[in-house]
């Protein structure tokens, strides 16, 4: 089969690999209907995260079950399934509290930028659709696996509710999904910080009401002006840099919440500043499995279309171009047809 291997920074290749096999009775094997490149894949691609050795890439996936282990009961061969980028048993105490991304058996999916993939902990990770979906819904169901689930978690963690004023820091795919989520949760005003026209247009399509192109202190000043100097009821931090986190804290009103889902790189906090800011924070890797059934229903009923976030579609063989296009910001998110 064909799969994607990152050999070194900037060196990602589609190569022939052995097909995965059942290794544990809780495994399933699926044939992917589509995969994609995630913004977090760019960290090792850019050399900002040490890989040590060549690594199989890809953690977003949907497809058809080819084989199941002896202990798998919730999905069967032939089912179309969507799974979270975090593998979980969905039965430990943390899972039962809705934090499957902190499962006691937690592992992170790899090797999904491929034609076939092994899914450990299949019963707790995969959710099947009632029937095979229409082809045009595949991109949106793929988005549920991570990018939509992560944006939704950011809005959930920030306690977005009807009538809220929301600020989204970051106009990447996750930030755009945060806009969609905030709109679905009834936010009255959604302000996204964005400098890029194509991303601004998609944000407006998903429900953003205001665009702030300024950064740093200028961006904070602009948002304070838009909110009558109060700040936002909820802030979605979807980048993970020191600047983005600082901006999130500065535009949040006292008593508000920040949902932070950008993987942090070099982020540090000042304890006294946090103390006097009086802002709550909740984030981390998104417990996508908690939201999977609801988000899949929204997609299948065509109430949302997160698949529009894929603005570049390539065959798996051209995965290197998909990475390059996202690295150069020529694409928001690359869909890979397998």
TrEMBL record:
Taxonomic superkingdom: Bacteria
Pfam families per record: ADH_N, ADH_zinc_N
One annotated GO molecular function: oxidoreductase activity, acting on the CH-OH group of donors, NAD or NADP as acceptor
UniProt keyword Cell inner membrane present: no
Transferase found in the keyword field: no
Required cofactor(s): Zn(2+)
Key words of the record: Metal-binding, Oxidoreductase, Zinc
Domain Enoyl reductase (ER): 10-336
InterPro entries: ADH-like_C, ADH-like_N, ADH_Zn_CS, ER, GroES-like_sf, NAD(P)-bd_dom_sf
PANTHER family on file: DEHYDROGENASE, ZINC-CONTAINING, PUTATIVE (AFU_ORTHOLOGUE AFUA_2G02810)-RELATED, ZINC-TYPE ALCOHOL DEHYDROGENASE-LIKE
Similarity comment: family membership: Belongs to the zinc-containing alcohol dehydrogenase family.
This protein's name: Zinc-containing alcohol dehydrogenase superfamily protein
